DNA repair protein
Amino acid sequence: MSWDRLQLKPQIISAVQRAQLRSAQEVLCVSGPDLQKVTGLSRSDVQDLLHAAAAAACRARPPVTALQLQRGECHRLESGLRLGTGCPVLDGLLRGGLPVGGVTELSGESGAGKTQLGLQLSLSVQYPVEHGGLSAGAMYICTEDPFPIKRLQQLISEQRVLRSDVPPSVIGGLRFSDHIYVEHSADLDSLQVCLSRRAPLLLAQGLVRLVVVDSVAALFRSEFQADDWLERNKQLLTFASMLHHLSQEFTTPVLCINQVTDVFNQSSSSVSSSSSSVSPALGLAWANQVTVRLMMQRLQGTVVRGDQSSALRRLEVVFAPHLARGGRDVGVWREGLRGVLDPA
């Protein structure tokens, strides 16, 4: 390709040519630190190169109009194909589970149970379609905390408790931990490489059918200052475009776990918890890219079942083209999230 078309600085173009990187895809296959080594460029120049390469890769894909995107997502939302959660109460709220088209956001405060649901879905996707799965694995991208391997192992050991509706022979034949592909992205550069190269490879081979990003806000909050909002929004749009292309091209659900920010009630002079609420992080630029928005809250009550107790949570549908607004109370148990029909 002609690097001159990307409007890069001359020294960046010369360094790329010396390193014999011939295409945007080749650049995106290399991490930021490795690009610095092979090109001799500064970190800021490497970031400019990666951003330009990601934009070129997006332009190389067949163009999709807003109407085509809307029609495609609506068709998938109404097609009936869903990724179940493994809990009948939550599946009832979500009309069967996560849709295979578009991006689903799950936001909430720390400790609300967001990662718990992400792990549960990473196991659920491995079940056959007749049991709410998609007969494939999951790609789990961690951007801040280490992957919770001990909790995953506990969920795997308790699958027969959670999924009593599934024959034990089916559960026994699934090697759950072998089909969860964990990636750690410490910066936006490595996240772009992951989404533009590794994810399409796993999806094209049929190894995965779910992509989880935990969490989407972490990198955008850490890499941009308040004055950089315009550049941050540009990067958010590029990121969202990559997620939607993955979902559309491979008919796969994408789950983005998001943090929240405090929203204070200006009519109150105090800043106590009673005068504030929370909203999903990253503002309208991100909200407009989300197909389904869910929110989890940790409530004041406690629920008890047998020898277990759990802080009461609530999963709410904030907006979705195919769902009515509403929510269900849930508890976090050894076997995973389960709806609480009667918290009393």
Notes: The two ends are 65 Å apart (CA to CA). The longest strand covers residues 292-305. The first helix runs from residue 10 to 18. The domain at 81-339 is CATH 3.40.50.300 (Rossmann fold).
